[in-house]
Design goal:
80% helix, 183 residues, binds zinc ion, binds fe (iii) ion, mainly alpha
Length: 183
């Protein structure tokens, strides 16, 4: 297993992990948009898909900034093929999302509540990853990287807050009125 010897290498790893996370989220969001019933929830998720594509591009910029100071022990394969880091956390969260959407198929508003729950788990994972990466960048004096990561971190917080609002003032209220019994 490749060893990470410096905080800078650990930062690089976190960036690779986040890159994989954003790629997987870009794949997953359209299915969640499709499954959502509330028009506000659909549009919030669609909007976050557009933002997520921008976040992936922002990570390309971060990678370029980090490349200008090459790390000590990049392997030849990695030099040729780039990172092969797959974010297992996001992989698991996406699987959970797919599973809970199937389990709640019978009731649209309960399904919407489940979609928000799954989406917020993903947002919280991202907030944690970006928060840590930004702290590393700050410690290393990489102010451009820090700035880019802050932009994304703020967007993830905004997405999370919007989902909170949709749940508390709409989707959960509606879902609570459904008894699960035939009417
Ligand atoms: Fe994101
Ligand atoms: Fe991860
Ligand atoms: Zn996000």
């Amino acid at each position: 297993m490749e060893q990470l010897l410096t905080l800078r290498e650990l930062l690089q790893h976190e960036i690779d992990d986040l890159y994989s996370a954003e790629e997987q989220i870009i794949e997953a969001l359209p299915k969640m948009v499709e499954a959502a019933s509330s028009p506000q929830l659909k549009s919030a998720l669609k909007n976050h898909l557009i933002i997520t594509r921008k976040q992936k591009n922002r990570l390309d910029e971060v990678r370029k900034l980090l490349e200008s100071q090459p790390k000590a022990n990049t392997g030849l394969m990695e030099k040729i093929f780039g990172s092969n880091t797959k974010c297992k956390g996001t992989e698991g969260l996406v699987k959970e999302a797919e599973h809970i959407m199937k389990q709640t198929e019978e009731d649209n508003s309960v399904k919407d509540a489940a979609i928000i729950a799954a989406a917020q788990k993903i947002e919280h994972y991202e907030i944690s990853g970006y928060g840590t990466a930004r702290a590393f960048a700050m410690q290393l004096g990489l102010s451009e990287v820090e700035k880019l990561l802050t932009e994304t971190l703020n967007e993830e917080h905004e997405a999370d807050n919007e989902l909170n609002g949709l749940a508390l003032f709409g989707v959960n209220v509606e879902a609570a009125q459904h008894t699960g019994l035939p009417e």
